[in-house]
Amino acid sequence: MKHWIRDLQINFATATRGQGQIDYVMYHFLRTAGWEWIWECDGYAGDSPNRVPDGNMEDAGTGSWTPLAGASVAKVTTPVRSGEQALQVSSTGAGDGVASSVLTAMQDSTTYRLAIWAANDTGETWDVDVDLGAGYVSIGSIPDNGGVWTLYVFSFTTVVGGTRQVRIVDTLGATGDLYVSDIYVFKGYFEYNEVDAWESGSDGETANPDQFSSPSYLFVGGDVGKVICIWDTQNLGNSGAYRISSVLGGVATLDLRSGSASLVSQTGLSWRMIDLTAAPDNAPGGRTDERGAGFGLQSPHPSGHRLFIRQAQYGPTSPYLDIIGIWGAPGPTDFDFSTGAFYKSGPSSQHDKQSTYVLPTNATNPWTGMHVFITGAETAGTRRLFLMTDDDGSFVTVVVWDQTGGSSTYSHDTFIVGHLGEDLLHTGDQAWGLFARWQYFYNGAYQLGISFDGNAARFSPNGVVIGADGLTKDALLAQLAYGTGSFDVLTQTNAGPNRWSGDEWVHKLIIARDPSGNEGAASERDSDIGVYQGRQNMVNLTTFDSDNYLHFIKGLVWEWSGESVLP
Fold first, then answer.
1. What distance in Å separates the CA atoms of residue 535 and residue 337, rounded to the nearest whole number?
2. 291 by DSSP, 3-state: which?
3. Mind giving me the DSSP string for 522-559?
4. Extended beta strands in 291-393, E state
5. CB–CB of 434/474 below 8 Å?
6. For the sheet containing 472-478, what is the strand order?
7. What secondary structure letter does DSSP report for 354?
8. What is the pLDDT of residues 509-547, one digit of tens each?
9. Has this prediction a pTM greater than 0.85?
10. Which of 12, 144, 153, 422 is the residue whose CA sits 20 to 30 A from 211?
11. Helix, strand, or coil (residue 276)
12. Is 152 exposed, middle or buried (0-12, 13-18, 19+ CB in 10 A)?
């Protein structure tokens, strides 16, 4: 069954423009749908957001790590959780441990998260301390976990002045080895947002036509304007991200953004309520940490495919375009916990094609070699967010409709990522793909990264897929039936619905791998995710065939939930 975010309005001022709000909603909706948090970052420290020198343990030697008391430290290649090395801390008595080098790019009076991947089979608990700027304080501990790599996340707030360091100390006198894969200090804007204490539960209740409640949470007037993310695998159309329009008696009334939609009454639903004013959404020239915020998620699909998104607002000077860098992998490919970039040990969009993320610092194009998602222009107005996925998160596709100043005039955009359909020759990793804009380019008004481009051979030229050798290959979304010449029987200018039934023609997107033949991996297959090519002369943002399909623009058509869309 398909699930949608159906036309969530993102209202924005010139200073914010909504990019971070879009990311924030996407993140929390997918988390509600069962996707797993695997990473997040801010942008204050730059391309590599980790403030801990050698935090991924990949530097040669232990120059960034100081043994404490009688401890010894070493880099080892087994056991290793991620990358090629881990830090071994050997203890012989109480007080033994390890201290980091001075943390970089730290700010006074600021709350941070400290994430540590550790394996501890010493039989003792190790303390985790941070020098906040005026001496060490304990912020948590690493218990004996049987030597199983486990993630621990702690919080601390700096004081004014001083230097900051992290140390891990054996306070009870264990004899043995603690292994550390990653130590990562970051500011949280998604799962660990310090401003939005988002509510969540698995006891959500919908009631016809547009009400939502939870036995564990009593909605109040201050929740009006917040967004409820709902996940319902039983009833088509109930899932979504909806603004709360009013509250009465602890029950929220939702804005369904449709002239015909209504909720089916259901209990036991997963839900989250988020406040979009807490989203990382500052304008270029403002807080760099927000402009470079991002996240990584792992799908509940059996493949465990991974998706990373990181904001890259152009700035700090004009042009103020909102860019989102996007990268992914067909499975749980290993990645650098300090940067979010995939290692070359497994298949991903970054293995052979994509470059890694670069934080923009001036009015230049930092996205060379990256897939990007453009979410609008600088003028104040409204964006309309659409997202589609399925029960097990095999894929995600998003459209942001830019209704700048109340009329659609600038930069709509879209991406598709995930397992897009198998056949006998394309199974496993080869069923995965990522299609979005390649680098940054401007196609003119009304353009999508995925749309009919006037070439009789393709619908979108900007994709990557995986070949049989596990390497990344160029790909495009091919199209059939519509020609471009004046003598073609059916062209994009004279196309119309079926003359007898009145139904529209829609075509599954054909995934053409290595279309040039330069990589020795040429093949094609049909996609099977509910995204189609239709005729581009249809009315924009309009449902058809009993509201079971939605045409956006330039021939991009989605399977739809049987409900109308507001103009």
1. 44
2. helix
3. -EEEE--SSEEE--TTSPSSEEETTTTEEE-STTEEEE
4. 294-298, 306-311, 323-329, 371-374, 381-390
5. no
6. 2-12, 381-390, 395-404, 413-419, 432-435, 460-466, 472-478, 510-513, 523-526
7. P
8. 889 999 889 999 999 999 999 999 888 788 889 999 999
9. yes
10. 12
11. helix
12. middle
Under DSSP, is residue 25 helix (H, G, I), strand (E, B) or coil? helix
Domains of the chain: 2-44+279-559 (no CATH), 65-186 (2.60.120.260), 199-274 (2.40.30)
Per-residue tokens: 258: 């449709």
Buried b (16+ CB within 10 A) or exposed e, 255-281: bbbbeebebeebeebbbbbbbbebbbb
Distances 413 to 65, 232, 383, 466, 506 between C-alpha atoms, Å: 45, 27, 11, 24, 20
Name 232's Cβ contacts closer than 8 Å, sequence gap at least 6: 3, 206, 238, 239, 264, 266, 269
Q: From CA 250, how far away is CA 263, in angstroms rounded?
A: 18
Q: Say how far apart CA 145 and CA 117 lie, in whole Å.
A: 11
- Predicted local distance difference test score (pLDDT) of residue 309: 96
Residue 543 backbone zone (phi > 0: left; psi -120 to 50: alpha; other: beta): beta
| Measured distance between the N- and C-terminal CA atoms of the chain, rounded to whole angstroms | 26
- CB 114, CB 127: distance < 8 Å: no
**In this structure, what token pair is assigned to residue 485?**
């010449």
pLDDT band at 489 (very low <50, low <70, confident <90, very high): very low
CA-CA distance, 476 to 417, in Å (whole number)? 13
DSSP letter at 417?
E
Tokens of 364: 């230049």
Neighbours of 425 (CB within 10 A): 10
DSSP element (H, E) containing 289: helix 288-291
Q: HSE-up of 267 (CA within 13 Å, CB side)?
A: 2
Which candidate, 95, 6, 11, 26, places its Cα nearest to that of 373?
26
Count Cα atoms within 13 angstroms, Cβ side, for 42. Answer: 28
- Could you read off the pLDDT of 179-238 as tens digits, one per residue? 999 999 999 999 999 888 889 999 999 999 999 999 999 999 999 999 999 999 999 999
Residue 250: CB atoms within 10 A of its CB come to 12
